[in-house]
Amino acid sequence: MPATFEALGLRPEIVRRLTALGLSKPTRVQELAIPVVMAGKDAIVQAQTGSGKTYAFGLPILSDLEAGFHPAVLVVVPTRELAGQVHDALEAATPGRKLHTVAIYGGVSIERQEKALAAGCDIVVGTPGRLKDLLGRRTLNLTEVSTLVLDEADVMLDMGFRRDIEFLIDRLPGREQTLIFSATMPEAIKVIAQRYLKSPVIVGTPQDAAPPREIRHSFLRVDREQRVETLIALLALEAPERALIFTAMKHETKRLAAKLERHAGIRAGFLNGNMSQSARNTMLARFKAGELTTLVATDVAARGLDIEGLSHVIHYSVPTVVETYIHRSGRTGRAGNSGKAILMVPPEGEADFKAIRKTMAFQEIHIERDSLPVLDVPAEPERGGKPAPARTSTRGADRGPRGTWDRAHPSQPERGRKASGDGQIATGLTRRRNNRPR
Question: Is the pLDDT of residue 405 over 80?
């Protein structure tokens, strides 16, 4: 019989909040991890993206945390978007206003974040770079942190945050519990676990971290010179409710979104790490609200985004790392919903596709070359960097006004910086979560 939140020992007021949010029973990772976290044990939790990992650590922490002034819990995440999402999820599950969570990340006013910290909080959710900045300015006090959560740990290590993580851990004199949540388990995580965790409980298996079964995986072989036309034909064929398209380069996002809107009438936006945080938030809000049906993004959108109704993820570029494909695709098929991931494979992407294909089953999609729309646009730049000459074509596809085609009517993660000093005095004082057996 599936467990209930009540049976897991969460406080009644937490359970009532979950009921109000429409959550009646825990996911698999929550069922397995919550008792371990509530027992105060160190843990390594491996589970697929979109499986409910935030509440797997968040609910037991909220249920066992006493209000104070300086933070007792530090959650470290790789991207700004994930920091905001974890903050919002914890705030939504917090009963009353006794416990306070503050999100710390770059791209927004650091003074405003310092003001929030000065007012007092119980949980800090932050990205490594901004956390280090605030430590250097002596406005973040971590001496009372007893629980550390490394969320999306594999992503942080892949981004080169290992030294930043170790820097932060060394500034937690009161640390009693360390939790690592990760979709994959690279060797670097094992090294950190061996150095910093005490007899950790292993929760989940590599099978738990595999792409969700609710996602159907397909691929489409394309000519590089006709990627835009093929994408438009693909969107017409699939008619997605809402689509997220991943590109490799930042400059591609805006250009591709403009081409989709100009030539296919698709309401498309774009997202990349060069945008200000305000611009990124605005674009995401438009996408979530349905004002935009398609979002073209770099891998800044591959982690930490939970978009309701996202039916399709399209890989306009082939990821060079299997884990990147998993994280990108994991934006759809979340929380038991179905989704579809489609990989566009040009000839130069065959080797990377072969590695990805070893991990899961794909179905092939065929779009006849003669059925592609005709666009009077310059060819995409060649690999040498020189733009190719403009293309002309006499193919017989129907064309409408302004080159439209009748059939086609859909963060920057912070980089680690050199340590600037811990910015605090280690007093040895800690605030323990109540009823914490060790």
Answer: no
H-state helical runs in 39-122: 53-64, 80-93, 110-118
Token representation of residue 91: 């705030």
What number does CATH give the domain 12-203?
Answer: 3.40.50.300
Structure tokens belonging to residue 295: 């979002």
User: Which CATH number is 215-403 given?
Assistant: 3.40.50.300
343-377 tens-digit pLDDT:
999 999 999 999 999 888 899 999 888 788 877 65
Domain spans of the chain, in order of start: 12-203, 215-403
Using an 8 Å Cβ cutoff, are 302 and 331 in contact?
yes
CA Rg value for the chain: 23
Of the candidates 333, 325, 405, the residue with the CA atom closest to the CA atom of residue 158: 325
Cα–Cα distance for residue pair 151/181, rounded to 1 Å: 5
Model confidence pLDDT, tens digit, residues 320-347: 888 888 888 888 877 667 889 999 999 9
DSSP string of 107-175, one letter each residue: SS-HHHHHHHHHT--SEEEE-HHHHHHHHHTT----TT--EEEEETHHHHHHTT-HHHHHHHHTT-TT-
Any residues with CB less than 8 A from the CB of 289 and at least 6 apart, and which?
none
> Per residue in 289-300, pLDDT tens?
899 999 999 988
